[in-house]
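Long-time lurker. I teach an intro course on protein structure, and each term I like to show students one example going from raw sequence to a predicted 3D structure in token notation. This year I'd like something fresh instead of my usual example. Would anyone be willing to generate the tokens for the chain below so I can use it in lecture? Attribution to the forum is fine with me.
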Amino acid sequence: MKSAARLLAVLLLLASWAGWAAPSSAQQSPAAAPAAEPSAPATLTAQQVFDRYAEAIGGRAAWEKLTSRVSRGTVRIEGIDGTGTMLVYERAPNLEVVITTLQNGYTFRDGFDGKTSWRQDAAGRVKEVEGPSAADRRALSDFYSEINLAKIYPHPKMVGQKTADGRLANVVEASVPGGFVRLLYFDAESGLLFRTDIFENPLSPAPTTISRQDDYHEVDGIKYPYKGSVQGPGGNVQFRFTTLHHNVTVTDDEVAKPASSSN
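-- Reply from a regular --
Happy to contribute to a lecture. Here you go:
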């Protein structure tokens, strides 16, 4: 899911910034995850997998009835005691802000204002995101990206069926223009996306980051993943949404890029 996958990357960045991940996590490579080996040739095209996913999460008509989302949840970073909180504002067509407060009181913000992707650290300093990460963020900030995967990923490649995390999956290789290559794992039975492998080095056989999402709930006619995790160079992070509200007022101030602190 758009918010889940992108949110996981944001949370992992927090652990990396602050150096709060446990040493064993920081040294652990995503390659330690069990390999996902092909088990059968492709029986569907990438477009068919995308279309099946769109239907599994509620269908285009249900999604297009929604124009905003406010989500609240909890965050746990491996190696840190306690639980942090997160607050996510989203507004169509492509405005969003994630506010994460860790258990030590430090607050981080990450967002897309319709033009640029930005991050604000605990000291209030704002920095624009550049390169492939910015390309990914621009595309995935589309409020309706989940029902427009063929638009987001214009040249997908059907890899075939693989078993990953104990589940048979239809796997699609894809990237947004200028973004990182990724493998998208869709459950062969339900059609739901449950794992994304991101390769910052396209020549590496092992992903840089592995994100997972699950526990889909029906909310306002769509299905949305309520929990997820990410494993990458900065450590391991888990999140769980506790509330989701659609078609609520999201003000310009709530999704605006903040001024940077001079500290």
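Some talking points for your students: Helices lie at 2-18, 23-27, 46-56, 60-63, 131-140, 149-152. The two ends are 36 Å apart (CA to CA).
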